[in-house]
């Protein structure tokens, strides 16, 4: 009676428990071998790999159609691909294919409209990110960057009034507006 209420025989439930434990242990071993970067969400590929790892783990844990060996091999291949791409992405052209480049959304109080469109963000999205960053006055904002991970970095005035270090922005699309006196095309927020 109790087994019928659960919807699965005890043998199937035991198999799920064993598979879940084993695939979890395989995930730990692979992530220890691959290193800390294996779950870091630095690039769009890292995010996709993390989602795929979760999907393989879940499918292997609860599906009777996917064997434990198939799940372990799938995890291994995914970790190997992630490791390989991390190694070769420094080569010319590879990084442009694998990574999104950060995008400058705001310089001072001036919003770069074309970059908002390109980043699929609205002015209200930027205002929300400014609030979340603890910005209480717009005149304190120096730059807002949509990072390659989809997160938004808000840079505000520092107490010493030091200029922004240009080397931090060389990979950011539109960074040249941070270096010059000319305002980017756009309107104040």
UniProtKB/TrEMBL annotation:
Subcellular location: Cell membrane
Transmembrane parts of this sequence: 12-33, 45-62, 68-86
Gene3D superfamilies (UniProt xref): bsu07140 like domains
Chief place of localization: membrane
InterPro entries membership: DUF421, UPF0702_alpha/beta_dom_sf
Keyword Membrane (UniProt): yes
Domain YetF C-terminal residue range list: 90-158
Membrane association type: Multi-pass membrane protein
Sorted UniProt keywords: Cell membrane, Membrane, Transmembrane, Transmembrane helix
Entry's family note: Belongs to the UPF0702 family.
Protein name per the record: DUF421 domain-containing protein
């Amino acid at each position: 009676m109790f087994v019928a209420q659960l919807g699965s025989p005890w043998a199937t439930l035991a198999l799920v428990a064993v598979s879940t434990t084993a695939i979890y242990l395989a995930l730990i071993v692979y992530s220890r071998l691959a290193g800390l970067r294996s779950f870091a969400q630095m690039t769009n590929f890292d995010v996709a790999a993390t989602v795929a790892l979760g999907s393989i783990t879940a499918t292997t844990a609860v599906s009777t159609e996917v064997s434990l060996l198939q799940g372990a091999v799938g995890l291994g291949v995914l970790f190997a691909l992630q490791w390989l791409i991390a190694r070769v992405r420094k080569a010319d052209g590879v990084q442009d294919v694998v990574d999104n480049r950060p995008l400058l959304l705001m310089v001072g109080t001036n919003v770069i409209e074309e970059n908002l469109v390109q980043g699929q963000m609205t002015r209200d999205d930027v205002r929300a990110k400014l609030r979340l960053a603890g910005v209480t006055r717009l005149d304190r904002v120096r730059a807002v960057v949509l990072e390659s991970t989809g997160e938004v970095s808000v840079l505000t005035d520092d107490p010493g009034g030091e200029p922004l270090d240009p080397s931090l922005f060389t990979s950011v699309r539109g960074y040249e507006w941070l270096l010059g006196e000319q305002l980017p095309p756009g309107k104040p927020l």
